[in-house]
Amino acid sequence: MNQSKGSALKRHVVVPMLVLGVAIGATALLVVNKKPVERKVQELILPKVEVGAVVFEDIQIPLQTRGVVTARTQSKLLSEVSGKVVWVSPKWVDGGFFAKDEVMLKIDEQEYVNQVAQAKSRIAQAMSTLVQEQGQAFVAREEWQLRRPDSSNKAGRALALREPQLASAQAQVDAAVADLQLAEDKLKKTRIRAPYAGLVDGKDADIGQYLGVGHRLAEFHAVDYVEIRVPLTQAQIALLELPRLGETADIPVALTARVGDLQAHWQGKLVRTEGLLDEKTKVLYAIVEVDDPYGLRKQHKRPLRIGTFVEAELPSRLLTDVVVLSRRLLRSGNNVWLVDDNNRLDKRQVRVLPTRGDKVYVISGIEAGERVITSGISDAVEGREVRIDSVDEEPKDENTQVTDHVNSPVAGS
Length: 413
Known about the structure:
Blueprint (H helix, E strand, L loop, with lengths): L1 H32 L14 E6 L3 E3 L2 E10 L2 E5 L4 E6 L8 E2 L4 E5 L2 H38 L6 H7 L2 H26 L2 E3 L4 E4 L8 E2 L4 E7 L2 E8 L1 H5 L12 E9 L2 E16 L6 E8 L17 E7 L3 E8 L8 E5 L5 E5 L1 E2 L6 E6 L6 E3 L3 E4 L6 E6 L9 E3 L9
Parallel strand pairs: 1-24, 23-25
Antiparallel strand pairs: 1-22, 2-17, 3-12, 3-16, 4-11, 5-7, 5-10, 6-9, 7-8, 9-11, 12-15, 13-14, 13-16, 14-15, 17-21, 18-19, 18-22, 20-21
Helix pairs in contact: 2-4
InterPro entries: MdtA-like_C (IPR058627), RND_pump_MFP (IPR006143)
Family: Belongs to the membrane fusion protein (MFP) (TC 8.A.1) family.
GO molecular function, one term: efflux transmembrane transporter activity
């Protein structure tokens, strides 16, 4: 009995020991035969960019300004004679066009016709008196010569030859002729004519109305050409070849304006500048002319009406060594991103000309042959290494944007 208990005890001890030994041996065998773990090295991925080589150009850049269209001449039409308006032109309306010397309205002329007739009658009477005096003066001269009086008495001689009477008769003729000219002039003024080719604005006379001398008829605007007074900044003045004071020029100017849903275009020319700078803004005003603004000679598809607000663009003088870039490549503070010889980002401040539009014109800060980033890149940091995807011969003018680490806005966008 005791022997059986001892055998059972040995089994409980020996069997677990054998299992443990086998497990330890198996584990050791696995450790000895285990393959080493392969460690993968993660490759650094560089951001990919496109660049363009900086190229200098000799160009004329567009300069922008703006202004309002005004008439080159504006007159206040006044009646020069009195009377009743008996006829008006069908075009005698606000905005009506008249050619030079075209009749716009008529004033009753009967009174002035009578004045012309009376003046002619007075001329006839004066001429008759003058002829009589000339005859009497001739007779007096003949008698004077027959008597051969003392010619030293000049006053007596003048009276004897009827010279005062002859001069008075001649004066009456001259006065009558002057009266006729005045009457005829008044008669002509009963026909109100356009002083030049233009349009009516704010008419204040109509058929049946009685007009006094000096009565305002209407405002009248010339339409053979119009003017636009545009401001030029000091920076723009430095880029232009403007005429000297008192001289004229012929600088082409492109004009645009929004007409409804369409963009209308006209061509003008800068002809002169004003003599003084504006005291407050320090700008110089230039005068742009546009011929035939209403298309009366069919030069324009659309009329350029007085009062229209227009954008104006004119070329600068020829500038040398200028770099043209897309405006989207320009960062705040006038910075651009370049890639240096070590393929690292280089943020460079440049000097640009004061222009609007989708292009910028760089005049200093970068050199020919340097590489400007023309593609988009996120989280741009100066000194960061990049990979060049392609190189253009010159910077692209496309709508690309570079985002740097401060996420500053693109200039001009």
